[in-house]
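Following the same procedure, sequence and fold were stored together, as reproduced here:

>
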Amino acid sequence: MTELLAWGILGAATIARKCVIPAIHASSSNTVQVIGSRDPASAASLARKHDIQSVVEGYDAVLKDPHVEAVYIPLPNHLHREWAINAFEAGKHVLCEKPLAVNALEAAEMIAAAQDAGKMLMEGFMYRFHPRSRRIFQMTAEGRIGVLKLVRAAFCYRMDETLRRSGKNFRLRPETGGGALLDVGCYGVSTARWFFGKEPISVQAQAEYHPNGVDVHLVGTLKFEGGGLAVVEASFISALQQTFTLVGSGAVVELPHDAYIPWEKDAVYSIRNVDQETGETITVPGDDEYRLMVEHFADVVQGRSQLDHPPEDSLANMRILDALAEAAISGRTVYIEE
């Protein structure tokens, strides 16, 4: 029988309540030992629902629990660095919500702390674990669509108008690492880099900004060596877009608007050959990408597997996010240094 990896959860954010805690509970290799909350009473019902043994006040108490082996951090972006480093100093492994940090410098500090502690750090890009994503990645790597020429990736949604006007949500505050680029644009950058299998050489961007100063609507372009291009769209003020398209020299792969969060329902994609107007629709049986992610995490921690997406990949992603933010502000092309 597989030994269960014991988790501590820092906070009861929506992503933790709806996705990651249920995934850990459903997993055969993980268990939630404790959840730390600023309001333990409100977290009690969550604990009862998922058989969590302990609810404590604050986050330090989670790190002090000797039974906790790994920590999940779903906190606002500006708190990722602080609590990841605290967790490493307490001897815990860390699964951190995306984006890994608010900039590449902070990400590098987190990676150095993990290395010093001899612990694992992984960013929670769950979409890479879904069977549909993996099938498309393998198909592309094998040349099924020819040479990859263009990636279009969009993650956009319309934030509640009253909330957006108030500017009080942490996604709308610069001091908490807000903005559409970091919140959802990180997916598109990750997608383009993953499928091209290399780093962009330059980026450009245009954005619209909230009065607070964070971007709420952004389009960026990435140029890769060899002629590959990518378009990344991120927005808090548009209708839903949650998809990516891969355009190759021989075929096109297109996804519906559940590309990053298909939940457990069957997932589909279409492939059109070079001169087709209508392609073939492929169905992939549904699965929980969050459960697959935490099971992979446990397998790596317990020595049964190698880490698919090391933190250095997350650092590279942060560098491109930094460059896109700079390009949008400056109106200039930003070249990526080696």
Residues 149 and 172 are 34 Å apart (CA to CA). Residues 311-330 form the longest helix (20 residues). The chain has two domains: 5-123, 127-293+317-335. The domain at 5-123 is CATH 3.40.50.720 (Rossmann fold).
